[in-house]
Specification:
The protein is an all-alpha fold and about 170 residues long. Helices cover about 80% and strands about 0% of the residues. It is a multi-pass membrane protein.
């Protein structure tokens, strides 16, 4: 769900968002959502306490930083100049993909203690994230066309909101 929302936000904020960029989003998010449960599964219980203790802080920090930067860029650009990047950089994609997949690492740790085909489970998770990230990016592109500059601010606020949601869920447990 977080990868979908972040994809919508990316589709909103990137000027001229294209199918190619949507597929790029899908590949990054799908790959991270596939890899993180595998990493967690391999790590097993030896580091699970450390992952669970900090995953929400990392996700919040990354999303709040990227979202805050989007809002800042939208509000500080002169009138008549379209805010937002024209391309999703590998650095930005890696940060977003990592932030939205950290929980999958902890899920992978828990899967190490039950009998599950980890490759099948991770494959399904990755495929769903890939598909919904593409759809979310394309939906965001449509929303961006409708709302123009306000969409960049909205996209940044969505990222910050997702970060707060992740932090809130983990701190209220």
């Amino acid at each position: 769900m977080d990868a979908f929302a972040v994809s919508v936000s990316s589709g909103i904020s990137v000027r001229g968002f294209s199918w190619r960029q949507a597929v790029k989003l899908g590949i990054w998010f799908g790959a991270f959502q596939f890899a993180m449960p595998l990493l967690g599964w391999f790590a097993g219980s030896s580091i699970s306490a450390y992952i669970v203790a900090v995953d929400h802080y990392i996700a919040f920090g990354l999303l709040a930083f990227i979202g805050g930067r989007m809002v800042w860029e939208a509000l500080s650009s002169p009138c008549g100049v379209e805010p937002g990047p024209t391309e999703l950089s590998a650095r930005r994609l890696a940060g977003l993909a990592l932030a939205t997949s950290i929980d999958a690492l902890a899920v992978g740790v828990s899967m190490a203690f039950i009998e599950v085909d980890i490759l099948l489970a991770a494959g399904i998770i990755g495929l769903v994230a890939f598909t919904f990230s593409i759809l979310g990016g394309l939906l965001g592109r449509r929303l961006g066309c409708l709302f123009q500059r306000r969409a960049e601010v909205l996209g940044g606020l969505v990222l910050i909101g997702i970060g707060i949601k992740i932090l809130w869920e983990h701190l209220s447990v």
